[in-house]
Amino acid sequence: MTKYKNRILTHVLGWLAYVLVIAFGADELDADFLAKSGASFLPVIAIFYAAIGWLFPFYLPQKRYGALIIGLSLVSLMAVGLRFWLAQLANHMSGQHLLDDSFSSITFWNQFRLNLMFIGISFAYWYARRNHEIEQNQQLLEKAVLNARLASLKNQINPHFLYNTLSFLYTKALPLSRELSEAIADLSDMMRYSLEEAGENGQVDLSREVAHLRNFIQIHQFRFEHRLHIKFEVGGSLNGYSIMPLLLITFVENAFKHGRLDDPDHPLCIQLQVNATELFFSVSNRKSSGRKERSSGIGLPNVRNRLELAYPKAHTLVIENGRDDYRVSLHLTLN
Prior knowledge:
Oligomer: single chain
Number of domains: 2
Strand content: 5-15%
Order of helices and strands: HHHHHHEHEEHEEEHEE
Number of helices: 9
Shape: elongated
Distance between the termini: 32 Å
């Protein structure tokens, strides 16, 4: 709320400064000057907010430059029409002929040039604000990724020491039990994934995130002697795609925490489908009525925040919480 109050205050002060500059440049602050200034001032306000609130956000990100030019031209022409209407209104309310309210080419072009100037000002404002918001979101995203890594590594005082220890245990266990050594290797890979840094864009290869899910499932299967009924289906190629790290694991952890996984008729179903630039991920499970598995995940509320930061207007998260079943469906537009 404070953010929007500050923004409103900034706009009010900006317009006030513009009015003062115009007023200080006047020879005399008479009714004629006020009428002319008001008739020219209100149209440019309309143009400014139409541009930053509708035209630039809607057309520029989609690179629809032709439609943008047409839209700006139409809005500018409408603002000129508003200028002549305000002149008629001022003359009617004052009972005097303060302004030329008939069509005049001089008045038309003077107002049109003023409109073009404020289109430039509105673009500069929108572009600067957009870059500032992108920078802020990037900082929040980096912080969210860091928090996710800390959450996944909590209770680990020295992760590197534990990782090296797991490598040692894997070597010792290999001659004794292949299954035990594979479980240790899976756990070691999970720690490696949690410790490694993401790329410059704060993302990792999608194939690594999927491998992380498989390791997580394999370790739980080892714990419960392969009695868990889990269907994990992957469709499409994972090559060339990236994703925010430790994003999908939260939904799987949630299923292990709250789900019943020992019913062959109702297995835990995990589906991942990649098509062109879209990712579809779903997790559905039967609810458990018994003791729940403890999870070290970052939680669904934090995942929602991370999605808003990393995929603004490029994701859909649907949670269906039924009486007996629980389902999470995620749709992402990949970079």
